[in-house]
Amino acid sequence: MPIADRAWVPAEAKPRGIPCVEIESIVNDEARQRQSTADLIYTPVQMLRFIHAAFPDVPLQKGLIVLTGTPGGVAMTTPRWLVRLGNLLGLSRFRKLSTKLNGDTSRFLRVHDRVEVRGQGLGEVSITNVR
Fold first, then answer.
1. Checking DSSP bridges between strand 114-119 and strand 22-27, what pairing results, if any?
2. Which end of the chain is more exposed for a tag (fewer CB within 10 A), N or C?
3. Is 21 a residue whose pLDDT tops 70?
């Protein structure tokens, strides 16, 4: 996962809001994701509160990176109805994944794959997968 050596801070921070930025992920020159941060379910403040509640003895320090999950398209897509059906059947996330993949991992990252992440107006970072 590419991580920049600097952080972006919105000009107008709204503690209860979500900054609206279009994020794009490209693997070996193929666009895999394009999603707006406006689609996040939780605000950054809500995420930090959850982390603090779950790990009260771990201080949240400057420079800490919080991964918020990823939109669809990284390795596969699953229709919402199929996700809901799996939930209704009580399947674990690993069972749902195994059922969905049916052994096909061709879209998963491989050694030497180049991953770029671009943020609208923020620039881009990239990394070559070495494992």
1. antiparallel
2. C
3. yes
Whole-Å CA distances, 83 to 59, 86, 107, 123, 130: 35, 5, 19, 33, 32
Mean per-residue pLDDT of the chain: 82
Tell me the two tokens of residue 71. Answer: 């939109």
Q: Which residues contact 92 (CB under 8 A, 6 or more apart)?
A: none
Q: Measured between alpha carbons, how far is 73 from 3 in angstroms, rounded to an integer?
A: 19
What pLDDT score was predicted for residue 34? 87
Are 74 and 33 in contact by the 8 Å Cβ rule? The answer is: yes
CA atoms lying within 13 Å on the CB side of residue 100? 21
Is residue 78 within 8 A of residue 72, CB to CB? The reply is yes
CA distances, 11 to each of 8, 48, 51, 118 (Å): 9, 20, 25, 19
> Percent of the chain, pLDDT > 90?
16
pTM of the model: 0.65
CB 128 within 8 A of CB 114: yes
H helices of 26-126, in order, are 44-54, 80-88, 93-101
